[in-house]
Design brief:
Layout lengths: L4 E5 L1 E2 L2 E2 L1 H17 L3 E7 L3 H9 L4 E6 L8 H15 L3 E5 L2 H14 L4 E4 L1 E4 L6 E7 L4 E5 L7 E5 L16 E4 L18 H5 L8 E5 L9 H11 L2 E4 L1 H5 L20 E5 L5 H7 L4 E6 L12 E4 L2 H16 L2
Parallel strand pairs: 1-4, 1-6, 4-5, 5-12, 6-11, 7-11, 13-14, 13-15, 15-16, 16-17
Antiparallel strand pairs: 2-3, 8-9, 9-10
Helix pairs in contact: 3-4, 6-9
């Protein structure tokens, strides 16, 4: 009989990504509702600290798989390890982050085990009557929300966008069990080899992990004006985001897009520049701790979610902000 709720804790060169810790928060609530254990799965090399952190963030137990073949993410290795563990323990629910790697491994595991998968979820709950996982995601271009269940196959699996949930408080005193699992894939079954990692490319658009994001929209009027956004982001020590309108116009690559059809983010500071605030964009950033909006239209919807609003011409406001920040830093 399938039992327990799992969270796949994605790691990168020994470090856990935030989305796994974020998922332990709703995972804890749903496991408690089911009266079952919350289990984190950590796969990598030198990732024991990530396992201990998972317990501090709410896991009852951690299944720890370590090996040189898992140091860098690889589709074949990750799929093999997850499928082997799921066959052994038969969890009822498995959650993954909707990152590049999570979106890669989750459907492969689903196909391997012949079960379902709900992708890019923005909401999770347990139906008290059926005890099924209810996964909510945007559909029809973000215009509707669909709630999906998987009643006939196990495990029930979903990928969840980073930034949708907040991490629980880190509790160093929390105790749990770390179970070391010896799962190793035959090297001949790994079909892709990582030859070189170009860190500047890999980390340039890390919206999900960023503490500060400065996003630009159609109010910038031209692609070359994203230079202002980059300068403000650099001054604040942040990264560059964008609205769907700016991406659709071809001004900036899709990797920068924030919103229902882009990335869901929850930084400490989100600065929206020349973004009107369509509902699809608001859904992707409204969980930010502090939101600053700069727009010349005082009735722009973005001001409805902003903590601080500046009504004015962004081409005057942003350079003044950049200069003021640099003055404070003594640059």
């Amino acid at each position: 009989m399938s039992k327990n709720l799992w969270v796949y804790l994605e790691t990168d060169e020994g470090r856990a990504k935030n989305v796994g810790f974020e998922l332990l928060n709703p995972g804890r609530a749903m496991a408690d509702k089911l009266g079952e254990e919350l289990v984190a799965v950590v796969i990598g090399e030198g990732v024991e600290q990530a396992a201990r952190d998972a317990i501090a963030y709410g896991a009852d137990r951690v299944l720890l798989v370590e090996g040189a073949e898992y140091r860098n993410y690889n589709t074949d290795a990750a799929t093999f390890a997850m499928a082997e563990l799921i066959r052994k323990y038969e969890p009822s629910i498995v959650l993954y982050g909707a990152t590049n790697n999570g979106r890669d491994v989750a459907p492969r595991v689903a196909c391997t085990l012949k079960t379902g998968l709900t992708a890019d979820c923005t909401g999770l709950d347990i139906d008290e009557e059926t005890r099924l996982l209810m996964s909510t995601r945007p559909t029809f271009g973000g215009n509707l929300m669909a709630t999906i269940a998987c009643p006939d196959h196990r495990p029930q699996m979903s990928t969840v966008r980073p930034g949708v949930f907040k991490k629980a408080a880190y509790d160093e005193g929390r105790t749990g069990e770390i179970v070391r699992e010896e799962v190793h894939i035959d090297p001949k079954n790994i079909r892709v080899e990582l030859v070189e990692r170009i860190r500047e490319v890999a980390e340039a658009v890390n919206l999900e992990e960023a503490d500060v994001i400065v996003s630009g929209g159609r109010g910038l009027k031209a692609p070359e004006n994203f230079t202002l956004i980059r300068e403000l982001a650099d001054a604040l020590g942040g990264v560059v985001g964008a609205s769907r309108a700016a991406v659709d116009a071809g001004w900036i690559p899709h990797a920068h897009q924030v919103g229902q059809t882009g990335r869901t983010v929850a930084p400490k500071l989100y600065v929206a520049v020349g973004i009107s605030g369509a509902i699809q964009h608001l859904a992707g950033m409204s969980g930010s701790d502090t939101i600053v909006a700069i727009n010349r239209d005082p009735d722009a919807p973005i001001f409805g979610v902003a903590d601080y609003g500046i009504v004015g011409d962004l081409f005057e406001v942003v350079p003044a902000l950049i200069q003021e920040i640099r003055n404070k830093k003594g640059e």
